[in-house]
Here is the input.
Amino acid sequence: MKKYKFTINGNPYEVAIKREKQGSALVEVNGSEYQVDIVEEPVVRKTPQIVRQRVVHETGKKPVKTKAAASITPSVGAIKAPLPGVILEILVKEGDEVTAGQPIMQMEAMKMENNIQSNRNGRVKSIKVKQGDSVLEGAVLAEIGG
Here is the structure.
């Protein structure tokens, strides 16, 4: 049973909610019972909480460095999709010479058109996708050789 104390216009009230059903409740106000209709359900907000796991290191051992940064940077010569999306247009073909920063294809991701650029100077060795292909984040789109 939920109990509340209110002061309305200087008058004290003790309210106890005895039973609650869909759309109605039995409440007791200063000793008198009333059947009331619930007009609006209270909003229950569930705020997500981020819980990080604690890392416990064994005594005497040094923490191991991971290569997370290497997995983010494209491997030498591989052009990877920065986001999941759809290939709209391929601007180069195999054998073309490209320079670092040159757009090689256009991709739609999150309802925006994005230019996919070469990450180095060189010759287009292979194009791994075709126009209209859906790709996932990190998928290899093309390879640039030296």
Q: What stands out?
A: The two ends are 76 Å apart (CA to CA). The CA atoms of residues 79 and 142 lie 5 Å apart. DSSP finds one helix and twelve strands in the chain. The first helix runs from residue 68 to 72.
